[in-house]
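Hey, quick one: can you model this chain's 3D structure?
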Amino acid sequence: MPAPHNTFKAALKEGKTILGAWMSLGNMLTSEIMGTTGFDWLLIDGEHTPYDITRIRECLTALETSPSSAAVRVPFGETWIIKQVLDVGAQTILVPMVESKEQAEQLVRDVRYPPRGDRGVGYSTTRSAHFGEITDYGTTADEEICLLVQVENRKGVAALDDILAVDGIDGVFIGPADLAADHGYLGDMANPEMMELIQSLLTRIAASDKAAGILSTRDDLTEMSLAAGAQFVAVGLDILMLRNAALATSAKWREKIG
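Sure thing. Here's the predicted structure for all 258 residues.
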């Protein structure tokens, strides 16, 4: 029995555009609910939210029967955390703050088993191999892992062509908030200079053999990103969607009762 088919990776290879959302609330219930809302993919954010490895595992479990593909953003690009996230069943990994070809090459090794990589061979007892049920997991897992790297500062921009040349990277994600901050526009990623830069970066990525991605909660940035060739686009965050819906509901009825 081979490793599970990664529909996220397959969609990128087929050139499809897939819409996603960020999950930051950090629990199984909200993950399960988000899996019923029609997004092609959902990102479990381990960088800025209260997800530890146990919660990541729980949220992956909650999404297992969902039509939405699960992706996990690790807090940093370290071999040990990538190993743990893969072993609890993640097949699509997003790594923040990638700044060089060498870093990208090591990340490729982190998600592959020897002799092509450095991933620890312990799958017979892990959720990723259904605790030994997937007997061919070790020989088939590498091809189903989707590795996405984030370019979100000036160092990453300067190294973009080198990163794009690394075999084993499936997609490059532009982080607009950090990118704007590193260029002196903290909190102002819609600045015309930043919009132009983001568009040019997405266009360069889309012209390569890698898929381009971005997170955007602004319609103008989302539309520009899609026009520039972005394939995996997150258009919302669970926390903001909850807050905005709650604010709208309370404001509506507050106005009615005076």
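One thing worth noting: The chain has a mean pLDDT of 96.
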